[in-house]
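Q: I'm building a small set of examples for a reading group on sequence design. Run inverse folding on the following structure and report the sequence directly after it, with nothing in between.
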């Protein structure tokens, strides 16, 4: 299994992208939520991945955050939901809005996603009702990729803040607000904590 890719972003044409890892181009499909956070073509990128093996193809899916990948994997376990629908859900609704919909058992936000009918939406809500808390808690236990350059500094800071009990969406907002001018992971965490307190 390929856990993540770190390399140069060679091409991006939603929903497809290519990551050049030491001269090997990995073609991936990614949700729009990941595309919104991608740097310019040619920049270094770190993406979590999930490999789907079918009779006629091996498809690598890429995600900007561990939470996106966890939700994608949880959606694949729901009867009647394949990679295309799971990718559509991640593209059409934020993780926070998805969690709220599941907690409220409200199918409307999911029904608005292209390709998701009411029956599928209701099945997703029922099947993932008990997993919503697990998804949030599991993010804190997930090991981060090995240290590298600035992308992984953000990743390490993200994992640390989630482990401290901050919600994933709040951590993403805090890290975005402090930017990446910090010299170290510790400095990033310090700035994010200051932003959370202020």
């Amino acid at each position: 299994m390929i856990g993540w890719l770190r390399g140069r972003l060679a091409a991006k044409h939603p929903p497809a992208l290519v990551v050049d890892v030491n001269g090997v181009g990995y073609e991936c499909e990614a949700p729009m939520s990941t595309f919104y956070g991608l740097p310019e073509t040619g920049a270094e990128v770190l993406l979590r991945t999930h490999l789907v093996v079918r009779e006629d193809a091996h498809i690598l899916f890429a995600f900007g955050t561990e939470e996106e990948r966890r939700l994608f994997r949880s959606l694949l376990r729901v009867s009647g939901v394949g990679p295309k629908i799971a990718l559509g859900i991640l593209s059409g609704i934020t993780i926070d809005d998805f969690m709220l919909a599941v907690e409220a058992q409200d199918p409307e936000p999911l029904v608005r996603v292209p390709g998701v009918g009411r029956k599928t939406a209701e099945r997703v809500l029922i099947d993932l009702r008990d997993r919503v808390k697990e998804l949030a808690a599991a993010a804190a236990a997930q090991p981060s990729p090995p240290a590298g350059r600035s992308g992984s500094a953000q990743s390490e800071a993200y994992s640390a803040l989630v482990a401290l009990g901050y919600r994933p969406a709040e951590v993403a907002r805090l890290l975005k607000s402090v930017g990446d001018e910090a010299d170290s992971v510790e400095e990033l965490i310090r700035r994010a904590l200051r932003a959370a307190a202020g």
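The chain has ten helices and five strands.
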